[in-house]
Amino acid sequence: MPRTPAQDDAPSTSPVSDFEQSLDALEQLVEKMEHGEMSLEDSLAAYERGVGLYRRCQSALEEAELRVRLLSDPQNPASGEPFSAQDAGSSSRGDV
């Protein structure tokens, strides 16, 4: 079955595809706000934009995690345990 234009465009509109760009924009916005030279109105607008960028990044991370779980166990993606750096450190110490 041929792919539709909507399917061909899907990767470029995916939250995962623009994660880096959103994260960079969020970091620049935070830097600008930390200087404290913005008016109250500009600060509020920047904060609103920052919340939107944060949500976009969070959505991308959630989608990426789901994709990893689906690749790890396609029959039961909910069975995967969330990864944490603390878990990785304790398991590597147990192997030594």
UniProtKB/TrEMBL annotation:
Bias regions of kind Polar residues — which residues?
10-20, 87-96
Q: What is its EC number?
A: 3.1.11.6
Keyword Methyltransferase in the entry? The reply is: no
- Tell me the segments the record calls region Disordered: 1-20, 71-96
List locations, semicolon-separated.
Answer: Cytoplasm
Named from the GO MF annotations, one term is: exodeoxyribonuclease VII activity
Principal localisation? cytoplasm
Any Pfam family from its record, for instance, is: Exonuc_VII_S
Which residues does UniProt call coiled coil?
none
Top-level enzyme category? hydrolase
* An individual GO BP term: DNA catabolic process
Task: Keyword check for Nuclease, yes or no.
Answer: yes
- GO annotation, cellular component aspect: cytosol; exodeoxyribonuclease VII complex
Q: Which InterPro entries match?
A: Exonuc_VII_S, Exonuc_VII_ssu_sf
Tell me which family the UniProt entry assigns to this protein: Belongs to the XseB family.
Reported function: Bidirectionally degrades single-stranded DNA into large acid-insoluble oligonucleotides, which are then degraded further into small acid-soluble oligonucleotides.
> Its quaternary structure?
Heterooligomer composed of large and small subunits.
Q: Which PANTHER family does the record associate with it?
A: EXODEOXYRIBONUCLEASE 7 SMALL SUBUNIT
Can you name this protein? Exodeoxyribonuclease 7 small subunit
From what organism does this protein derive?
Lysobacter soli
